[in-house]
Amino acid sequence: MADNPMHVFGDSIGSWVQNEGTSAILHNVTQLTELGIQSSLVAQFPHLTEVDELILEGSFANFGGDDFSPVLPNLVQVNGDAIFKRKFSPIKVGDLEVGGNLTIQDNGAGNWDTASVGGSSDGSLSEDYSTYEWNIHHVEGHFIVSNVSNVAISMPNLTNVNAQLTIENCVNSTFSFASTTSIPVLLMQNNPGSLLPGNFRTLQFADTVVLNGNIDMSSNGNIFPSLRLVQGQVTIEAWNADFNCSKLVQQQRDGLIGHLTCNGTDSGNSTTTTSVQPVPSDQGSSLSLGAWVGIGVGIGVLALALIFSFSWTLSHRRRRNMERKINMNAEAAPSPDVVMAHNGHDLPPRILEFEGDTSFRPAEMDGRRSPVEMDATPRPVEKPA
């Protein structure tokens, strides 16, 4: 380890860029807008928890002696992009989440002493090298690994990538994503000397999968044993002629794969290009955002229609009940004479005409006799002869 690194104290530093060959330890710095380090001998940030952008570029490992990789033991959040270029071993971080894109590239180990990390003198790697693990849990954007050689990319804690995982132009390298369950797009192509798919034993959900290269046959073609649904296309372009497509064909027939193209063998068939309707899934990405929006709008319109229909029916029923009550009251109301007699008032005089019998009296009403007016002299009535 380099002697006499520069010690920096304070918590008001906005960004930190450390040039090649320098040594520094930052104390009490918890947040930075930018952290850039280039081939530094010592770069330690014991209290840093969050940065907006992280760029590490240069040679950060000397496997023959000290490990010069940056030390950020409490870094758990990169809000934007994280870029790692050239030669280095995995940085020491907390349970890191990347809010933007994660890029690992151009860090081929052509000059590394691979024998010192469990490799052989010819530059090939042994399984011991996989102990250099990246502690990254989540990538919100794209994850790109490109143009590396003789390295092992091991991310045992990475659970999901929200955009696309691309591994291309990687020579004689290994990959391990033992805990990854969800990747919208998985693209692995043009990786000579590297076995694919790279231990995706826990992958459950994807939209598109493209594998081009030497396919690992240790599982006899069962490369995605935990698969639950690939809505779109699965394309397998195996460089090894003995790759068996039968397991993928069966997964497609079971409705786990929407469309399948595989150039390996399948009980004598060299190519399979068929499509089936995917089975329903409880995974959140099984419906697109537009589909969910359409469903929400439809439910909203239906709810409004039901509310309007209920309100109109209730109003119409109230109006009919009111009209019925008015009609019933009108039919049951007594005549004005009955009301007056019932209230103890004398009825107004009536004019009655008689044809002769003056003993006629109107009917009694409630025990009272109605007064009668008549002509003083009865009119004579002629009787027929």
TrEMBL record:
This is Uncharacterized protein. Keywords: Membrane, Transmembrane, Transmembrane helix. The chain crosses the membrane at residues 289-314. Residues 355-385 are annotated as: Disordered. The keyword Membrane applies. It comes from Pestalotiopsis fici (strain W106-1 / CGMCC3.15140). Residues 363-372 have a biased composition (Basic and acidic residues). It comes from the Eukaryota.
